[in-house]
Amino acid sequence: MSQLIYNLFLFLYSTGIRIAAIWNPKAKKWLTGRKDVFASIKPPQPGAKTVWMHCASLGEFEQGRPLLESLKKQDPSLHIVLSFFSPSGYEVMKDYKTADQVLYLPMDNIFAAKKFIDAVQPSLVLWVKYEYWYYYLQELKKRNIPVLLVSGIFRPSQPFFRWYGGIWKKMLENFDHFFVQNQSSKELLETIGITQNVTVSGDTRFDRVLEIAQQSLDSKIISGFCGDSIVLVAGSTWEDDEVILAAYGDETHHEQKMIIVPHELDKAHIDSVKKMFKRSVCYTEVENNPALLNGIHDYNTLIVDTIGMLSRLYNYGHINYIGGGFTNDGIHNILEAAVWGKPVIIGENYEKYFEATDLVDCGAAESIDDVVELKEVMDNWLNDKTAYAESAAAAKAYVYNGAGASKKIMDYIYVNRLLTS
Description:
- This protein has about 425 residues and is of the alpha/beta class.
- Helix content is about 45%, strand content about 15%.
- The chain has two domains: about 1-200 and about 405-415, Rossmann fold, CATH 3.40.50; about 215-400, Glycogen Phosphorylase B (Rossmann fold, 3-Layer(aba) Sandwich), CATH 3.40.50.
- The mean pLDDT is about 95.
């Protein structure tokens, strides 16, 4: 019965995407990106081992990236295939140099799974965090191709642990080893009989953000805007975040500034954000008109309307704000901000992210509900140097102490000779 429901889900999802593609650009990219995927797959060089990493989207890729790059560094002859389910991952990383090929994963079915695996010829498969596709995993198991789950995280609400989760439990049976982020995930797997092949390795995102922290952002636009001012960097913001930040900005002094990096960068949304922040300028405006650089310090809000800068922008903040905490999905990557050793502010919806809970518990982060609480938190950190220093140190220590997940997985791969003939 659960397999019938799963097949119905696949049918309805595919149909929905085709309908949505008529007017939705993302759905259209999802569809057209898969059109010739089988014909585009390049076979590995004779004798080369292929590592196939699959990620749902960009966030999952950032978790798997340290491991993928470590494998390639260890053995440059490896043929790396990287697949994505969503356009937001594929479109950003389609030219990623470490991979020999970046692809969309064809929609799950028994025929696509066989054809894709025939073409890719993987020796090792790395599945990052979540997103489970039944027919792909079944086919890999049939062929005795080792499959590892990287940075897995499990919650009681997931179908694996519900009465209707039969097919989901079958998917888990196809993994050779689970590298999970925390002890509670390991304990949940034990409740459904998965006890022997689970390692609490931590989250590979810690390794990734530490790598990023070694690469400073050198931008005349950013440094010219900041000057000697107190700066709040707000990353991956949604409309609810922006409303609160705009209300706070109306009350701040001239010397206190904000850098806003919206989650959605389409023109309509950027125009809306510009209207909210009265003394604002967009990064691309200055980039395209260098004469604006001379007066950029007179603005109190810089809207960064380009991708690829956020993780390093947090270093410019005295305090950092992570968006998404007023959406159903919750906050974005808090570790990208914490690694720089700066206190962090988040919205109320963060509890399903253990690292956010940990950072709140250790005093490195504060959760707010509205602009009044935002002002209270900002005033406390900016007026109490001891409180600020303690929170900043706690943020940095938390990230540095969480490093090492990638090495644990690498050690497992080589000890078990998963890439050795």
